[in-house]
Predict the structure.
Amino acid sequence: MKVLKIATAGSVDDGKSTLIGRILYDTKSLTDDKLEAIKEKSIQRGFDYLDFSLATDGLVAEREQGITIDVAHIYFSTPSKSYIIADTPGHIEYTRNMVTGASTAQVSIVLIDARNGVVEQTYRHFFINNLLRIKNVVIAINKMDLVDFSQEKFNVIKGEIEYLASKSEYKRQKLTFIPISALQGDNIVNKSENTPWYSGNTLMKHLENIEANDINDESQTRFPVQTVIRPKTKKYHDYRGYAGKLYGGDFEIGDEVKVLPSQTTSKIKSINFFDKEFARAKRGSSVTITLEDNVNVSRGDMLVKVNQEPSITKQINATVCWMDKEPLNRAQKYYIKHGVNDAQAKITNLSSIIKTDFSGIEENPSKLELNQIGNIQLKLSKPLLVDAYSKNKQNGSFILINSRTNNTVGVGFIL
């Protein structure tokens, strides 16, 4: 069964947790004891309705304050597909959590309160979805019951988002607008009679129709070697296999490949998963590959198709989302973690801070602070094999680690 990974986003109290709880309820994915606990807690709070946000908010502080703080992952299935939903916080101080939750998503659902329309966090979350190159974005205009299911209000918000999209450089994104009421269930699983002017699918019908492709669906094939397998048995005395996960494209037996950084070439002899052999490995597969020639391959090396080589560089230009309370410090030593490789990194320049409302950039800023997004230049202690994030998500992203505190301070996207 295919798995669809979804990230939710939106401002505080736009109804993300309530929406997820409603989906779980309407798809009959809540256990009896969980549903009973929601009913009891709703009655204790004096509500005359079920507070579905209680289905996802697991931390005590979340339940007490009625907000989402941490990223929660919710799992459920329908007869045709399995789903993983990352319920991300809406507060500006948790922007880094939203980036984390959306980094592996195939679909993003951005909620907007129909009463408030597009607000600052909407700009920020829409920008991050563009930055992460999420192709399918659902704009769920929520709490339509509180604006009398106004088509005019829906169209105004739709127009504002479409204007934002026109200013984005990422043009492959597909936007879908759905009027909903998470609390009452309008257009979530069942079609609402309150929106006769809306002819599109319900939210769940739309999600069911989305093809659950791997997020790394680019054509350039990347196989970073995680480990070299050398069995200590007589039968496999001369066996040398290279294990890892395949990103970008596919590999087939007989494909001519280049080993980087050594630049040696060979052909794929076999593709194995555990004790089974395959003629082809699809992107996203974790496999073991053997080569026809006895070439030197080590952990951290990369197998690529000939004429599809990435850049080998010690200088990186990147967009980074800063995730640490300590601002970026060009005098501080950092480590860059890029796939299975790492290196010492020095930030040589902070060229700009990006305004997440698509209004431009702030050039030559003095610092980059928590949850801000900026463009930086890095100098590395050794060459890395990299792609632009727009060409290959896995090989075009990295994290920065403070060498003094060991904190992960930033997530970067190579330009």
In short: Helices lie at 16-26, 32-44, 60-65, 95-102, 120-131, 151-166, 203-209.
